[in-house]
Amino acid sequence: MTLPVLKNDRFLRALNRESVDMTPVWMMRQAGRYLPEYRASRKNAGSFMDLCRNAEFACEVTLQPLERYPLDAAILFSDILTIPDAMGMGLYFEAGEGPRFERPVRTAKDIEALPIPGAEDELGYVMNAVSTIRKALNGRVPLIGFAGSPWTLATYMVEGGSSRDFRLLKELMYKQPEVVHLLLDKLAESVTSYLNAQIKHGAQAIQIFDSWGGALSWPAYREFSLQYMQKIIDGLIRENEGRKVPVILFTKGGGLWLEDMAATGCDALGLDWTISMENARQRVGDKVALQGNMDPAVLYGSPESIRKEVKRILDDFGPHNGHVFNLGHGITPFVDPEHARVFIEAVHEFSAR
Amino acid sequence: MTLPVLKNDRFLRALNRESVDMTPVWMMRQAGRYLPEYRASRKNAGSFMDLCRNAEFACEVTLQPLERYPLDAAILFSDILTIPDAMGMGLYFEAGEGPRFERPVRTAKDIEALPIPGAEDELGYVMNAVSTIRKALNGRVPLIGFAGSPWTLATYMVEGGSSRDFRLLKELMYKQPEVVHLLLDKLAESVTSYLNAQIKHGAQAIQIFDSWGGALSWPAYREFSLQYMQKIIDGLIRENEGRKVPVILFTKGGGLWLEDMAATGCDALGLDWTISMENARQRVGDKVALQGNMDPAVLYGSPESIRKEVKRILDDFGPHNGHVFNLGHGITPFVDPEHARVFIEAVHEFSAR
After folding, report:
1. How many domains does chain A divide into?
2. Cβ–Cβ under 8 Å, residues A290 and A268
3. What is the C-alpha to C-alpha distance for residues A166 and A152, in angstroms, rounded to an integer?
4. How far is it, in rounded angstroms, from Cα A29 to Cα A34?
5. What is the mean pLDDT of residues B22-36?
């Protein structure tokens, strides 16, 4: 397959800390419920997982925000729980309750019985979506592939769904750490092959979502989350189609641990809004690029307050290479799509060199 | 009233960074549902607020953990939401749902109409409890008084109860910051008079619980949470009965902001488990003592793993003055009371000079 030339490579250049004409911007969960066209597509698609499994639908919703806004990257429409689902845990979504598993894993026996899902078999539908989206993008912007971190996946798999305190997994972690390591090892292997398959099918950058690593004590973070993300990074294809495939590590609430995260060999760190970009930049130096870090709640404000906050964050980062603008967490269903436009346009306007 | 001599002042000495024979320890929510005797008292007391309003009951449950364990401080049994309740918002607790308000405040008009509750009137029952507990303690250990931070109280008052993302309050904060400042100003005034009354009635140390300040961006934390805690600290009685009344500031998730928190003039910072004690100590120097920081989930582990974690944290803090051992958040209902004992005894055993 001959691939079209990438027309907008700001995002990839910034991740490599190269100079750019303006700061690239995308939004976590940019293909989502805040968009009326997304809600319309969802209506016709059945369940959330049906939408993920249908490459045409996944492609359609991935492209929706790009049709509206001058975004600098697309992200595969999928879910971090595709892997445990492919392990046979019976993923389903309950209205207003978030994800649930029919068969949570809580013992060594449960975990030993989990298969490593085939990235081209059980998870082949994701690769199909990646290829389809990549083709449809036609070189417009780069496509981001992603996966959840082993720790984050484990929280859902052991708790059986979302949790506020991760009681069951933490209990297992403090009582039988070796059992949790068994699970995390299996997940690191699965995530590595899953992400490599995404890269082979056309993902041009990778983000690892460690949504819940920030709930750990600092030594436990290193032992139970960071160690396994390190394993994944060590096993990833780092160059494809003659270009580097940058890896972004995003531990929400990980602002105290940036030095260790940067030492994994990733290319960029995702930051939430609790940290100053300047402080983060000084701490990681030239090791990695930084992505973030506006509180998504800023989008509930007025257009003027959104523009003010964008300006503040750009100034906070300062006149350096290596900034990808983003929200510090996914955009929420309650945001006015016109406010998202104000945000995206302000990033470009205020950062134009 | 002649007060008995304080028999165990380790806790107050550590907060003043004086030498101690062993590291003092207490647990947030130590009078709580993990204790069978607490559950028995609750059964006879009606609602949670009925329990808070009855000085004899409040005293009984405050003392329960001290009967079981060699704790170095008692904390008033009460709730941070007594102030908004006394403002007439109609606090109630729904089983499994946490606190709720019948009449949340969401507009300038709502907020203007809120009265500043009288610490000796509407909140007189709390002062009654403080006096009763102080008398019953008979100099055994110091009594901690407390309040929620203005920002934290505002989250419940605007959202109408617990929240994961503080959507309504953050929307108001970004759209009409002056309205939120009006609320926070009123709360700072109420909290100051409330805490001063607790001190006059016998509280020997004060903790300000900023449970949700960590959800803010770093500039918003300074403007909407820290600024108002600073106002409170500036207005507090700092010496009583011929002894300093130390103030502990606890912003959960505030590990990136310790320098600014220490600059408020508080005596100690409460730390959650995401930060290294050594790192925190180096950053705040001799300015403040540190309280914390074990993950309460460690108590789900085995006695050996609990002892190991206690040792690790003591070593992490190192051989310096100014450490009060605590959990990084409240003890949960699921903890085995014998594990709490292992924890408390290990702190004393491993830290004995």
Report:
1. 1
2. yes
3. 10
4. 9
5. 97
Q: How many CB atoms lie within 10 A of CB B297?
A: 26
Is B145 a member of any domain? Answer: yes
Beta-carbon contacts of A264 under 8 Å, excluding residues fewer than 6 positions away, are A226, A229, A230, A233, A249
Say if residue A98 is exposed, middle or buried (CB neighbours under 10 Å; 0-12, 13-18, 19+).
exposed
Dihedral-angle region of residue A63 (phi above 0 means left; psi in -120 to 50 means alpha; beta otherwise): alpha
**Interface contact flag, B175 A312, Cβ < 8 Å:** no
What domain range is A149 assigned to?
Answer: 10-351
Q: Looking at residue A196, which CATH number applies to its domain?
A: 3.20.20.210
- CB distance A274–B253 less than 8 Å? yes
**Which residue has tokens 């003659």?**
A242
Residue B292 domain-assigned (yes or no) = yes
Instruction: Name the residue with tokens 């709730």.
Output: B79
Torsion sign across C-alpha atoms B64, B94, B124, B106? positive
Query: Is residue A171 in some structural domain?
Result: yes
Count of pairs with CB atoms under 8 A, one residue in A, one in B: 98
Whether A276 has its CB under 8 Å from any CB of chain B: the answer is: yes
ipTM: 0.95
pLDDT(B269) > 90:
yes
For residue A152, the model assigns a pLDDT of 98
Helix axes B177-200, B124-137, angle to 10 degrees: 40
Closest-CA residue to A126 (of A64, A171, A79): A79
Q: B217, A334: Cβ pair inside 8 Å?
A: no
10-residue averages of pLDDT along chain A (353 residues): 86 98 98 96 85 94 98 97 96 85 96 96 98 98 98 98 94 97 98 98 98 98 98 98 97 98 98 98 96 98 97 97 98 97 98 95
Beta strand pairing call for A143-148 and A205-210: parallel
Query: What's the Cα-to-Cα distance from B21 to each of B230, B293, B304, rounded to whole Å?
Result: 32, 20, 24
Q: What is the pTM of this model?
A: 0.97
Closest CA to A192 of A135, A155, A233: A233
Kindly name the residue from B13, B42, B134, B281 that is annotated as catalytic. B42
In a domain, B323, yes or no: yes
